[in-house]
Write a structure and sequence with these properties.
Layout lengths: L1 E5 L9 H11 L3 E7 L19 E4 L2 E6 L8 H21 L6 E6 L8 H9 L3 E5 L5 H6 L8 H12 L4 E4 L2 H9 L8 E3 L21 E6 L8 H10 L6 E6 L5 H10 L6 E5 L6 H7 L2 E5 L6 H4 L4 H8 L4 E4 L2 H10 L2 E4 L4 H13 L7 H12 L2 H16 L5
């Protein structure tokens, strides 16, 4: 097939879509990527892309067509200029490209605006469009938008539905998002499928058994932001701080790390909670070997569909073979239950999470099979080959459609 892939982000930015396009080429497909100028996440454009350079490239068989965009800046206005500039430039370019594509493949993370050129490309080529949604709108905005700007949400919802409805078929990385597409955006279930993203499988072949310790060591790894509901984790620790047989280790940083540090100081949790900061990927095995269990939380009351998604760190914990204790709902809770990789309290339930942590400390043997159960589920559901087989099959099936 001749595939036109549309996404604002691509190599040398670190997004999974680069590997997806290159694997489609390896499988015999012709892929053109309509993308922006790299500047994520800093807003700094590399020297080799300044002054209009490298707007047409080829890498590992993928033709890369880059359009101009205003580099990212912090704040709503700075991000909006970035988002709208890519959308406008990519829409123009989509009308100029050859009209001989078999399928338009929109890979949508935030913002949904990056998928808007899908319509122009469809009209140019007369072919169907397949959309992979990895970040559902309008909930993604609702989760981050200050309450004082909530009046914008009806317009964001209308724009999101308008863009999504241009797709002939949608796959998404959360079973909860499938329900959102039905109830919020008016999709027919036959045009939807849950296809979880693949995850790094390097840990599957590693021996990451915990090193000996007199204390049970819980681990949180990754971005420490608002969506990760760190208050529930720290409140759970505070509820059992009378015990001297456990530690919580936090590996990573993010927008709320300062709040976490203040909470620890205000509640006398020094020694119970240890902050390690951000470390490169190659050092993660050392931290996993330190962990007896990993802790997972996600809770965004203002954005229920986001709260129901499958966070990527769950897959990382499973590949590492670690028991998982969670305060989470939706798809992630279903995966934890179905796989047998741990236990989950409802999202936001710090008391329930504290009870799970105490149960793990006191009854470690009951969790002895969780790690391998998680790895088995990962192999069956989260490998790159499994993901690519499904995406390729859906692209071929969608390309064969003549009308929605």
């Amino acid at each position: 097939m001749k595939i036109l892939m549309i996404c604002q982000h691509y190599w040398p930015e670190h997004f999974q879509i680069t590997e997806v396009c290159e694997e489609l080429v390896r499988r015999g497909h012709d892929v053109t990527a309509l993308v922006g100028v790299p500047n994520y996440p800093t807003g700094v454009v590399p020297d080799e892309y300044l002054g209009g350079k490298n707007r047409l490239q080829e890498r590992n068989g993928v033709r890369i067509v880059r359009v101009e965009e205003v580099p990212r800046k912090n704040g709503i206005a700075g991000l909006a200029r970035n988002y709208f500039s890519y959308m406008a430039a990519a829409k123009r370019k989509a009308r100029e490209l050859p009209g001989d594509f078999d399928i338009v493949f929109a890979y949508q993370i935030t913002p949904v605006l990056m998928a808007a050129p899908m319509r122009d490309a469809k009209l140019r080529s007369g072919c169907p469009a397949f959309l992979y949604c990895a970040d559902i709108w309008p909930d993604a905005v609702m989760a981050m938008l200050p309450k004082k700007l909530s009046f914008l949400m009806p317009a964001v919802k209308a724009a999101s539905t308008h863009i999504y409805r241009d797709a002939d078929f949608v796959a998404t990385n959360s079973s909860a998002y499938v329900e959102c597409f039905e109830k919020v955006h008016g999709f027919d279930p036959v045009d939807l499928k849950y296809v979880p993203q693949y995850a790094e499988d390097t840990y599957l072949s590693m021996n990451l058994d915990p090193s000996p310790s007199t204390k049970t060591r819980f681990m949180v790894m990754g971005n420490i932001g608002r969506l990760q509901d760190m208050p529930s984790v720290l409140e759970a620790v505070n509820r059992i701080k009378h015990r001297d047989d456990f530690e919580l280790h936090i590996v990573g940083t993010g927008s709320v790390i300062g709040d976490c540090e203040r909470y620890v100081g205000d509640n006398g949790l020094e020694g119970k909670v240890i902050f390690h900061g951000r470390h490169p990927f190659e050092e993660m095995p050392d931290f996993y070997r330190m962990a007896d269990a990993c802790v997972l939380t996600l809770n965004v009351p203002r954005a229920p569909w986001i709260s129901s998604t499958l966070p990527s760190r769950l897959q990382g914990y499973m590949a590492a073979g670690k028991p998982i204790l969670a305060a989470i709902s939706g798809s992630a809770a279903e995966v934890i239950r179905d796989s047998g990789c741990g236990q989950a309290a409802p999202a936001g339930d710090s008391e329930g999470l504290a009870a799970l942590m105490e149960d793990f400390i006191d009854n470690r043997a009951a969790y002895s099979g969780c790690g391998e159960a998680g790895r088995a589920y990962f192999r069956a559901n989260f490998t790159k080959d499994r993901y690519m087989d499904e995406i390729e099959s859906l692209l071929i099936a969608t390309a064969s459609r003549t009308e929605r």
